[in-house]
Amino acid sequence: MSVQLPLPDLDSLDLHGLVGTRPTAADLDGVDGLVRGRRILVTGAGGSIGSELCRQLARFEPAEIIMLDRDETALQHVQVSVSGHGLLDTRDVVLADIRDADAIRGILLSRRPDVVFHAAALKHLPMLEQYPDEAWKTNVLGTRNVLHAAVAARVPTLVNISTDKAANPTSVLGQTKRIAERLTAWTAAETGLDYVSVRFGNVLGSRGSMIPLFADLIRAGRPVTVTHPDATRYFMTIPEACNLVIQAAAIAEPGEVLVLDMGEPVRILDVARRMIAALGGSSDIVFTGLRPGEKLHEELIGAGETERRPVHPKITHASVPPLAPAALDAAPAPVTAPIDLAMAA
User: Fold this and answer.
1) Where is the Polysaccharide biosynthesis protein CapD-like domain (predicted)?
2) Cα–Cα distance between 186 and 321 in angstroms, integer?
3) DSSP-assigned letters across all residues of 206-237
4) How far, in Å, CA of 95 to CA of 103, rounded?
5) pLDDT in tens, 77-118
6) Which of 163, 174, 220 has its CA nearest to residue 344?
7) Cα–Cα distance for residue pair 143/177, rounded to 1 Å
8) Which entry of 30, 54, 153, 172 is 20 to 30 Å from 126 by CA?
9) CA dist., res. 31 & res. 49, Å (int)
10) 216-233 pLDDT tens trace
């Protein structure tokens, strides 16, 4: 029988200490011109990354921040943190699903944003291995809808938020996000618009991520589950990741994939041990084995991708082969067959 422990709050933990990293210094040169006085739309605005993007962007005094999400409660939470109220009756919050092509097109045509940060995605790797069709509908078709709508509205700048799992992908999550990067690159090549992707690894403390999960298990006195004793991941805090995403948007060339410097990979077992000690718990650590699609070690740069850092010391410029949206019609149905790895290569 598990016993709930009166342990310290997660907010009191030193996240950098848990993963052995140092905070990344902010460098906001060039960001002001991207944001100040402009209309900014964020998809997935209610999520961990989307909401922090909204909060950071608000500091640069944009003409308008349009926060779009399909989760009304999440929209209320981000509205409170950005606008100081949760009334949900103002134009800064938009309830819509990126899977709905007509709705997204109508919103962008009517609101005419200058910059779109596309953060809406499904991201839980094991869940998407079970339900690949859902990953396809959101991460691939949803991204296509956002790109088509942005082109129709002649949005000058779009930033597609990606993941390190798109580098040499082995999972449904990685494959679908890789395809989203390639769709973004194709759209930029066809239009000449500043449409780019930004790729980074695990984000500390984000909703549903490892740190909050470990904390819940430790507080309940339950075993902490780790897939493999040697498994490593790249980590960055939410504010750092969003800060670099905004900086990347200011320096990217059309079609590029910007890869954030996540420092050295960290062994998950070490994080689990540090968290148990920091929270004063007594949880055992149980190894469950790598799940389908999981890598022992993640990568930030894929095979054949460049590693140039011409502008910012923490941001690598890379490229991916463009993929025309019409090619999606020839892809196998994810509900009955795995996504074609040739497409995601």
Assistant:
1) 40-318
2) 8
3) -TTSHHHHHHHHHHTTPPEEES-TT-EE-EEE
4) 10
5) 999 999 999 999 999 999 999 999 999 999 999 999 999 999
6) 174
7) 9
8) 54
9) 18
10) 999 999 999 999 999 999
Question: Both tokens of residue 250?
Answer: 């200011």
- In angstroms, the CA 136 to CA 143 distance is 10
DSSP 27-38: --TTHHHHHTTS
What's the mean pLDDT in 38-62?
96
Residues 6 or more apart whose Cβ sits within 8 Å of residue 81: 51, 54, 55
Per the CB < 8 A criterion, the answer to whether 2 and 222 are in contact is yes
Query: For residue 229, which amino acid is it?
Result: P
**DSSP code for 308:** B
C-beta separation of 10 from 215 below 8 A: yes
Task: Supply 324's token pair.
Answer: 């025309």
Per-residue pLDDT at 334 exceeds 90: no
Question: Which residues does 205 contact at the CB level (< 8 Å), separation at least 6?
Answer: 10, 15, 48, 211, 212, 237, 238
Other beta carbons less than 10 A from residue 12's beta carbon: 9
Token duo for residue 330: 């020839």
| Locus of tokens 């964020």 | 42
Rounded Cα–Cα distance for residues 325 and 11 (Å): 43
Beta-carbon count within 10 A of 25 CB: 8
Q: pLDDT at position 113, please?
A: 98
Question: 3-state class of 286 per DSSP?
Answer: strand
Are the C-beta atoms of residues 234 and 41 closer than 8 Å to each other?
no
Given a cut of 60, whether residue 291 has pLDDT beyond it is yes
- Token readout for 69 is 């999400």
Please name the amino acid found at residue 40: I
> Which listed residue (123, 137, 165, 314) is catalytic?
165
pTM to 2 decimal places: 0.91
Token representation of residue 200 = 């980074």
